[in-house]
Amino acid sequence: xxxxxxxxxxxxxxxxxxxxxxxxxxxxxxxxxxxxxxxxxxxxxxxxxxxxxxxxxxxxxxxxxxxxxxxxxxxxxxxxxxxxxxxxxxxxxxxxxxxxxxxxxxxxxxxxxxxxxxxxxxxxxxxxxxxxxxxxxxxxxxxxxxxxxxxxxxxxxxxxxxxxxxxxxxxxxxxxxxxxxxxxxxxxxxxxxxxxxxxxxxxxxxxxxxxxxxxxxxxxxxxxxxxxxxxxxxxxxxxxxxxxxxxxxxxxxxxxxxxxxxxxxxxxxxxxxxxxxxxxxxxxxxxxxx
Length: 290
Description:
The chain has nine helices and 15 strands. It is α/β, with parallel strands linked by helices. It is globular and about 60 Å long. 38% of the residues are buried.
């Protein structure tokens, strides 16, 4: 049975987020849908998976609320559900920048469609920035993009302050997995005085879904926050796995390393694991094999 995986988000005022939580959770559970939806005063952000009928039902349920009538989503498929259960969580922010004054409902950068993106980032006057975390960038990114070397999105404002100048960097183009981080990042940068700020509409996922591989400027795979770990062009499942020892995505090449032990360690954590943790992970692996 084919499983449909959809991602979506929208910045919109939700003073009744706590009420919405129980309504959305109940409907998702009634349809057998799994995944995670985050709700905050600033909006909604989610990735869910289920049968075609179940996903259509949940999207229709969400769009019945006038605030989500124009909710856009990105879609892919999987052989099995990439989630174990359904969670709807209340958060302070649906994507954490740590600056509550940044409000994408009042101003954001200029959206660029996947079809137009190549031309924008090929402009030598444009500074192209990957707003994701360093481990995500290491798996794949656009040719020529800057890696801010951040461990969390909260560090992005510091990167801008230290490396970018509105008087020198006249044009900035940003991208992220699904578009949500760039909504906040572009709103923040406009408030800092940057004049021309662009961001990829629908993020990397929409680009990989839309742009043919022979026309693509994407290099590598794209990390996703579910059991698929990474996706490729056409949103086909990627080749990476997660290390049980540290949770870091690991490539096929890294699995060939002598520091890789299935279910225990990888080159990213081999030197940091204590003997006690190694033993616990090995016992966990044996338990799963029984």
